[in-house]
Amino acid sequence: MMARGFESKDVEFQQAEALRPRSVSAPMTPAELRLAARRRSLELALSKARAERASAIHPVHQQMLDEAILALQAQLADT
Fold this sequence. Notes:
Elements lengths: L1 H18 L10 H26 L3 H20 L1
């Protein structure tokens, strides 16, 4: 019975979101699109490296991931 209640609330939320007005912004330029895609790619790679680091056991692997995380953070700071 509870699952059905959660389902209906989810449907209500989706319907409300569909009716909510969206903010209109200027379309992104090709350069802005490339930059946004690059940032997203770096963010995903950083997230993956952090997750791998959390489960890494071998010290050499941990060090490699630490260096990769620092490099990705530096690249994100530059974008």
